[in-house]
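The data are passed on as follows:
___
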Amino acid sequence: MNCDQLREHYELYALGIAEEPERGEIRDHINRGCEVCGAGVKRALETAALLGASAPAAQPSPQLRHRILASVGSEQRRFGFAWVPVFAMAALLLVVAAYFAVSNRRYADDAARLRSQSARLRVQMRAQAAEIVRLTEAFAILSGPSTTEASFGGKQPQPPRGKVFVNPSRGVLLIASNLPRTPADKIYEMWIIPKGAKPVPAGLFQSQDDGSAMHVRPGMVDLASTAAVAVTVENEAGADQPTTTPLIVAALAP
C-alpha cells in the first residue's frame, strides 16, 4: 500500500487498534524510514496524547466500585484497581469516536461538493466543446471558396437583419441581429426551401439576449435546386413543416 492509502489509518495505529494489513504496512513504512508515514503517525500520537490529557479525571463512589467488583465475584480489597486511567481511556475513546464522526461528516460534505463541482465542470466542458465544433463549422462555411451569400431584412422597418452563407459541401450558416428571444415554449427553426418542393427542416436555435444569433446546419446542400433559406417560430420541439409566417427569408441567386 502507498502512503495515501494508509493516511486514514494513522489514528487507529496510534491508538493500537489498527487492523491488518494496514497495521503491518504502516509498521513496515516506518521501519523503512518513510517520512510521510512517520510524520503522520507522530501527529496521530500527539493528538491521542492531547485528547487523553484533556479527559477529566473521575473518582467513582465506594458503593459503585463495590457493586462492580461484587458482580464479577471479586472483593474490593483484593485488587488495587486503577479507576482513573480506565475512566480517562473511556473519555478518550468517546472523544476519538466523536472526532471521527465529525471528520466523516466533513469528508462526506467535501466529497458531495466535489461531485457537484465536477458535474458542473463536465457540463461546462461539453458546452464549450459543442461551441468549438459550431464555430469550426461556421468558419469552414465562411472560408469555403464556393460559398454563396444572401442578405435579409434590409427593406423592413425593424426586421431581423443579417446574412445567410451557403456552401455546397459544408452547409448553411445564418448570422442575424435584431432577433428577439422567443417565448419560453417557442423556438426558432431554420428551413432550406428547394425550388418547387416542400421546405426541409434545418435545425432549431435561440437568439441571445442582445438579439444576435448564429446557426449552423452542416452537411451538403444542392445549391442549384435551393431557392431560399427561411426562419419561422415554432413550438419548442420543432415542426416537420412551417406553421407560421417566416420572420426571415433569404432568397438565393438563381
